[in-house]
From TrEMBL:
Residues 230-375 form the Lariat debranching enzyme C-terminal domain. This is DBR1 enzyme. InterPro entries: Calcineurin-like_PHP (IPR004843), DBR1_C (IPR007708), Dbr1_N (IPR041816), Metallo-depent_PP-like (IPR029052). Residues 411-423 have a biased composition (Polar residues). Residues 481-501 have a biased composition (Basic and acidic residues). Keywords: Hydrolase, Iron, Manganese, Metal-binding, mRNA processing, Nucleus, Zinc. The gene is Dbr1. It comes from Hemiprocne comata. PANTHER family: LARIAT DEBRANCHING ENZYME, RNA LARIAT DEBRANCHING ENZYME. It comes from the Eukaryota. GO terms for cellular component: nucleus. Residues 391-401, 427-438 have a biased composition (Acidic residues). Belongs to the lariat debranching enzyme family. SMART domains: DBR1.
Length: 534
């Protein structure tokens, strides 16, 4: 599923419709961010959206136990979330019975399928900071709380075993060059400037795509359906070629393609339980010393002569130790716990303030595997006075960088990892959010209509290590044969002329670039308003 925006009733009812229409029963539902696990009015105040988009929606019914998700649901965070709620579970956990959050980054298993994901969106000016934010948020931290950090990318890059499915909220940068780009720009013409300059999407996600090479990669965020198919370069003649099927889905609105049923090879004899991934747990243990809760910028260890250790990948022996710790029982315990009062439509609370909560699930997880409880560390730092007051010190810098135009050096060697990316939604927030009172919340129901569905993976391209892209737009024409045959005929590789990416400075286009992005953002929200009035 694409962006859910808290409309769980609508999402599950649409899934039920699909089941009847196609005579299938999905085993697992994956949601690619903007899930909006809003429990109450305080959670609404921690969601970075203009007031007119703050709706209670229906998650609270699943949190309270009034309803239960009809299918096991796993999701990542986006840029419109109840950040205070998700922050309680930095390593992942249950936000409601049968609904599991992957954490800042995480890997789990279901019926033998290995599923990874990273929450949030990329912003260069926050990328190298630690997870320092905590409620109550201010106008800066309510946004930076959902920005991807380099430590999460570093952890994921330590993985060696194959990944079947990976999820990110924003798209990997350059992915649009491996699908039907002309059709994308026809639907979203305001993407053109960023597509042509190769600045649309997340360079951090591109790093992970190049490293992990998952079989499937799912994203959302841009509110448009788009499919691509990439073949990765091999490092040696002995290595088998790998390919990734990419699919971005629309948001949960009437007549939108926000749900897609996909048959993934799995172990039919395996149980229905969600399981820990032993290698990922071992990586968390190996990288625990790198946990940082300050807002100072820092780079991950790399082989540059400045670090005694830079390889934190784990051995088979370390993975075996994790399995022995768990007595080879990888089942994730169903230990969901209520940590906040649930919204009562009969007793609305207008003036509420969020508090920083330490979730028992996180406490138990950290104790079991000897990990640092990030929220406990933040609380300790606040009590010691090392974090309190630092937000105000950088308000001017944060305000200047709010468009994402700041360019920070990166620990990565690939050319595009330091590029800044524009986020249409967040610029809109800067325009409309202003100094808005974060404690003012609104509750409003939303309509419910089933969407139409269609998908195909088209236009195979080689993804080089440099993430070079084709300069031949003729390659983006629709391949009707591939679309008709689906994935089965994707092996027909296309030749293309490649050119290396250029580093795009934040000020290269002057103010005109910012105005262009604002117009694109206005178009996105205008389309959303039209859908809501249909």
């Amino acid at each position: 599923a694409g962006c859910c925006h808290g409309a769980l009733d609508k999402m599950y009812e649409t899934l039920e419709l699909l089941q009847r229409r196609h005579n299938v029963r999905p085993d697992l539902l994956l949601c690619c961010g903007d899930f909006q696990a809003v429990r109450n009015e305080a959670d609404l105040c921690c969601m970075a959206v203009p007031a007119k988009y703050r709706h209670m929606q229906t998650f609270y019914r699943y949190y309270s136990g009034e309803k239960k998700a009809p299918v096991l649901t796993v999701f990542i965070g986006g840029n419109h979330e109840a950040s205070n709620h998700l922050q309680e579970l930095p390593y992942g956990g249950w936000v409601a019975p049968n609904i599991y959050y992957l954490g800042y980054a995480g890997v789990v298993r279901f019926r033998g399928v290995r599923i990874g994901g990273i929450s949030g969106i990329f912003k260069s000016h926050d990328y190298r900071k630690g997870h320092f934010e905590c409620p109550p948020y201010n106008q800066q931290t309510i946004r930076s709380a959902y920005h991807v950090r380099n430590i999460e990318v570093f952890k994921l890059k330590q993985l060696k075993r194959p990944i079947d499915i990976f999820m990110s909220h924003d798209w990997p940068r350059s992915i649009y060059h491996y699908g039907n780009k002309n059709q994308l720009l026809k639907m979203k013409s305001f993407f053109r400037q960023e597509v042509e300059s190769n600045t649309l999407g997340s360079p951090a996600a591109s790093e992970l795509l190049q490293h992990l090479k998952p079989t499937y990669w799912f994203s959302a965020h841009l509110h448009v359906k788009f499919a691509a198919f990439m073949q990765h370069q091999t490092n040696s003649k002995e290595e088998l070629p790998k390919a990734t099927k990419f699919l971005a889905l629309d948001k949960c609105l009437p007549h939108r393609d926000f749900l897609q049923i996909i048959d993934v090879e799995h172990d039919p004899s395996a149980g229905d339980s969600l399981e820990y991934d032993a290698e990922w747990i071992a990586v968390l243990k190996a990288t625990n010393s790198l946990v940082n809760v300050t807002q100072s910028s820092w780079n991950m260890p790399e082989n540059n002569g400045l670090h005694a250790k830079w390889d934190y990948s784990v051995t088979e022996e370390a993975i075996k130790e994790v399995l022995e710790e768990l007595n080879h029982d990888l089942k994730i315990p169903c230990n969901f716990t209520l940590t906040a009062a649930c919204y009562d439509p009969n007793k609305p609370q207008k003036q509420v303030k969020p508090v920083h909560t330490i979730n028992p699930q996180t406490t138990e997880f950290c104790a079991q595997f000897g990990l640092t409880d990030i929220n406990a560390r933040i609380q300790q730092a606040k009590e010691e006075g090392s974090v309190r007051g630092e937000y105000e010190d950088e308000e001017e810098e944060e305000e200047m960088d709010s468009t994402g135009s700041a360019e920070e050096p990166s620990e990565y060697n690939t050319d595009n990892s330091g590029l800044s990316s524009f986020n249409p939604d967040e610029i809109m927030l800067d325009e409309e959010g202003g100094d808005e009172d974060l404690s003012t919340c609104s509750v409003d129901p939303s309509p419910d209509h089933p969407p139409d569905f269609s998908a195909s993976f088209s236009d195979i391209r080689i993804m080089p290590d440099s993430m070079a892209v084709s300069s031949d737009d003729a390659m983006d024409s629709t391949n009707e044969e591939l679309e008709k045959s689906g994935v089965s005929k994707q092996g027909e590789e296309k030749s293309l002329t490649e050119r290396p990416l250029k580093r795009i400075g934040g000020n290269e286009n002057g103010n005109s670039g910012i105005k262009k992005i604002k117009r694109r953002n206005q178009a996105i929200y205008a389309a959303e308003d039209e859908d809501k009035t249909e």
